Amino acid sequence: MEGFRSLHLFPNFNEDVVIVYKIHQNGNHIVFHRIGDHQTVYDPDYENRFRNRRSKKK
Q1: Long-range contacts: 6-14, Cβ < 8 Å, 24+?
Q2: What is the rounded average pLDDT of the residues 13-42?
C-alpha cells in the first residue's frame, strides 16, 4: 500500500473511523482513490484518555 495515507476521524469518543486513501494527478484531473469502506475501530478507553488530556490542559 505504498503511497497511501490514512485519515482518522473521531465521531464519538470511543470510535476511530479510518479511511485509507491516495491522491494523485492524472493530466488535468486530481484522482482520489479510497480502499474499501471506512473501518470503525472501537476503543472503550478513548473517552477516558480524552477527558484526562482535557483536564491536564487546565
Answers
A1: 10/46, 13/46, 13/47, 13/50, 14/42, 14/43, 14/44, 14/46, 14/47
A2: 72
The 3-state secondary structure of the chain reads CCCCEEEEECCCCCEEEEEEEEEEEECCEEEEEECCCCEEEECCCHHHHHHHHHHHHC
Q: What is the percentage of the chain residues whose pLDDT exceeds 90?
A: 0
Number of domains observed in the structure of the chain: 1
| Global pTM exceeds 0.70 | no
Angle, alpha carbons 19-25-31 (nearest 5°): 40
Domain containing 12 equals: 5-57
